[in-house]
Structure formats: structure tokens, C-alpha cells
Task: structure prediction
Amino acid sequence: MTLLELLITMVILSILAAAAMPYAEMTMVRGKELELRRSLREIRTAIDRFHEDWATGKISHLSPVASADGYPKTLKVLVDGVELAQAKGGKAKYLRRIPEDPFATGSDAGSRWSLRAYQDDRDALTWGGKDVYDVRSSSGNTAIDGSRYRDW
Result:
């Protein structure tokens, strides 16, 4: 091969690589968004199951891990479990682990969620600290569809 043929081949390969890069980046972002949706659904389902068990009396209304409104006081309660108020006793666990927020950044990026208490306003950016009524991503980044991750 001549040097000219080699240079032409390198230019063609560079153009192809430059065209494929945005597609690869978009695929990675879509994967993270899918993981975020799954994690949010998993945590929210666990919170709802906890509240349902509290409302039906499976969890004592005097339990120290449940708020007066029937929501867990922390996310860790969903993993550690809670003693059942039934005669046979036992412990109910709602999550195996706290899912990670794929868009969180910082020192505790793997597990940081923005929490909302039952008493907090819908758009509140700070957690009231009484219980965990809802979770959302702490990331201020924008999703592919133009919405912000913290609004999901």
C-alpha cells in the first residue's frame, strides 16, 4: 500500500468513528434513564407496600420505624425490615438493597436520593425528615425528552 491509500483509509475510519460516537453516547444515556426508572419504581413500590401493611394493621401503628402517617422513617427501614404485629410475628422486608441513583454525583453518588416526606410540598427541594413518602433523583441534569431527572 502506498502512503496515500493509508491516509485515505484513516480519514474514512475517522469519519465513521465520529458518526458513531453520538449514537454510542445516546445509548449509554438511555440505559441510565431506564435504570433510573426501574430504581424509582422499585423504591416507590416498596414504600407503597409498607404503607399498605401499616394501613391494614400488619405493622403496628405504634412501631418506632413508621411515622404517624404510616410511611417508613428512612429508606433503610425498607431494607432492615419491620416486626409484624401479627400473632405469629416475623419480620417484613420490602427491599433487598437500596437501588442506586445512576445520575447522582459526589462522594456518596451510588445511593443518594432526594427524599420527600408526606408533609412536604410536591416541589420541595428539602426533606422534612419525618418520613419517606417519595423519592426522586438528586441530579439536576436534563433527560433526553427535555425533562429534568429530579422531576421524574
